[in-house]
Amino acid sequence: MRQLSDCRLLLVDDAKANLDILVEGLKSDHKLSLALNGEMALQIAARTPIDLVLLDIVMPGLDGYEVCRRLRQMPETADVPIVFLSSLEDVANKSRGFEAGANDYVTKPFNLLEVKARVRALLKAKAYSDVIKEQLAADLRVAREIQMGMIPQDFSAVEQRFSVELAGVLEPAREVGGDLYSAFAGVAGRLVLLIGDVSGKGIPASLFMVRASSLARLLGRDIAEPERILARLNDELSADNPSGMFVTMLCAVYDPVSGHIAIANAGHNRPVLLRQGAAACWAVESLGTALGFEPELSFERTDLILQPGDSLVLYTDGVNEAFNAAVECYGNDRLLHDLNEHSSDAAHAVADGLLHHVRTFVDGAPQSDDIAILTLRRVSQTQSMP
Fold this sequence. Notes:
The chain is an alpha/beta fold. 39% of the residues lie in helices and 22% in strands. The chain is built from 11 helices and 15 strands.
């Protein structure tokens, strides 16, 4: 844990006499930076790591309340303890200070020993908080590595076996997320595709995702019908679900000999069929019910024939429900329109292209949900796999 003597305090007061008193009392215990007005304080905080701020209220230009609000808006100082040192001692002013984001309030004339004690207490609390945050961040990094390790990255063996192209993208909105996809050999020489989206985000969603994905893979190796895979998975998830979480999932089973693909949907986004010379369209119409609510549900099945060169695009709602800074939604119409550009592309170009379209649309706005994309393309009869 960081030593208190290594912590830097920012002292802000337009009265030099007050700064002199604070410097004399604190210089032996901490590193110090000084500012005679609010503008100078914000400039220092933006370029110098600060651990605590002692802030006057009544100052020319920006007053202490406004400085405090701006410090809370800056990423560098959003969590830094702020203590008001002010001659304004009535309850209304103190309340206003806490509403602006202060952690403590000391009235002038202040007792230097009291100021030092409060500074030490706040710095110790911040140091413990930083240690916990660092440990949590380390745990989340490990959790992300484990989660990403469960998502297939190399499809080459599956592509060779089933004469298809496969491409997947997964971008959690946080360190870990609840989206999943998979492609693996199932029963009777079939290829099983899965894509799902667990309710919520973060670690709980990630843990539920691991359970759902593991069960689905086990079921997909014994059952050839996607509607039965989802029904069995739903029974398993709903039988023991104290958290009340659920997962939307789409399951598809592909026969490489005939090009036949059977698709069942459990409340998930409708996949898109891409065929050269035709407009992008929905591959299924039914949405179905999400998994985990109640047992003994049944799911509709859609049967299609993928022609050589056809692609099936599976995705989660982090794609079609992405928002830009103007709170405009990417939407289904834009999704179909943009995918029209990729009707003859390889699987990886379809997945990467769709992700590029979404990123261009949001234009730097924060990612609001996990994004997963899985693309299957049947290799044309004249095309050979690498």
